[in-house]
Amino acid sequence: MIYPDNNEINRVAILDFGTNTFNLLIAEISDENKLHVLHTAKEAVKLGEGGITKKIITEQAFERGLTAIERHLERVREYNVHKIYAFATSAIRDASNGKDFIHAVQQKFEIYVLIIPGEREAEMIYRGVRLSFEMDSQPVLILDIGGGSNEFIIANKKEILWKHSFNLGMARLLETFNPSDPISKDEIQELESYLKTELKELFEAAKKFKPKVLVGASGSFETISALIQHRYSGKYKKDDKASREISYEDYQSIHNLLLPSSIEERRKMQGMEPVRVEMIVLASIFINISLSECGIQKIIQSDYALKEGVIAEILNL
């Protein structure tokens, strides 16, 4: 990916058009090539709702997407941004009318949007996560749960050892399995069996590289982290760090709380992000299978992912 010379820009906006949310990061790059985050925001779009398994962006989702971009650009104008980088991921790259959406964005807002493949997305997620905590020579398993796809990366501080993008995002699983409310034990077993088959390539890579830590990035992990922090408020203190360790036992406690819960019960949970209410149970099942099959019992939640990875690439970090 080619960026302009860093001397030409010092305030940038990153727009990440995901399947569930459209995310914004506004940052300033200092003369010393350091990053200072000025503003972050997200808009719930559910771009894949009603069409992701049919590989189409519905008319309603199309309009929600354009409205979300308009809101983000209002913020961008307030911050006098010099350069905008916009990226589209799974729902747009797979939809038969994904290019129509990108064309509409370019025509209406005069911004160029790059549709990135899953493997490229994984690379930038790694670069973002690497900024959030001190990695060492030991391999970790990074997981970014999206609405359309999930990116897995096994890496250490120097390099990516293995990566893969699976079209097993939560919006896809929700439409494919259409679970009861609350999800039944039979449906949980069916989903777990499906995931064990679909993720065989991951499990083989885990056996080879033996990561002992799962680093979770993006929305589902942020929600689970928030649920844990509210439930165990005395144990987890708010700080300015970009990552935090989550106790495996506390994660299991939240997992067991989510499994029998109804949508209405989840809406009332402190820390629950509204856009995650329907998908968080499937996400937790996905995380639990990944942990158990890879033999991992240490979890780190990272606030950084794709957007920060773009910044890292701009700065060559």
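Above is the first protein from milestone M3; the second protein from the same milestone is given next.
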Amino acid sequence: MQTTHTIHTRYEEIRHRLPMVETKDEVREIGSLLDIAGEADAFIFDAFGVLNVGETAIGGAAERLDQLRARGCLIRVLTNAASYDRAGAIEKFSRLGMRLKDDEIVTSRDATLKHMQPGRWGAIAAAADTLHDLPYPAIRLGDDPDAYDTVDGFVFLSSADWTAARQDMLEAALRRSPRPLLIANADLAAPRDDGFSREPGYFGHKIADAGLAPVRFFGKPFPEVYALALATLPGIAAHRIVMCGDTLHTDILGAAAAGWRTVLVTRDGLYSGQDVTPYMRAAAIFPDWRLEKI
């Protein structure tokens, strides 16, 4: 079972693959995002641990988005969830009661698909994913080991149906013939209703550790997804963008590297029930502000 401590420790182990940036140990406590609304032109939100936990919306989150809009702030959701296409993302947030427009949602799946190269791809995806938005031909990988040898590269969209046996088949195929592996969700874990799930980044870093293939990670904290979000905010200075997230090594680190300001949300995400201060000091990653919920 994964815990806050083991997840944080693993992020530190793979720190050399993450963006390099220094943050100042000057964290300010705030009661809500309304306290700093005047310091931002745009608020960017992580989803898991900030707006929702698994399939459950966090109370008051949808109302806070509306309040910030009423104060003239632009809203974006920047999520590493890559299990569903854009229509699926919109539907999910609607189901959670989040009143979000299409152009207010930026996903790591968007960033990944933009960087796929021509060829035949092996897709690691949820059963419900139609894969219709992939720009090149793809087959869904499962329990047939021969299928892993028929593709030019791999795109890891979801770990929902992934198993240890399938991971072994992927690693064996890459030993036989190294090929590109795109990890569409760089997270190691995500908070769910029943604990932490293992996300595609967890499996991708195992392969990177073993040196089996050229692995490329997309989503927070990597720059491509921040560039996509920034492109939807023309004319807004980086220091007037505030990223709100629950994880130091993804949300806070990546946003700081992009020159944005940052808020660590502590009540419902990775550090739920923990004193986050020792984790910040151990990693030397500090947000500009800290609060329990948005």
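Note on the second protein: The chain has a mean pLDDT of 96.
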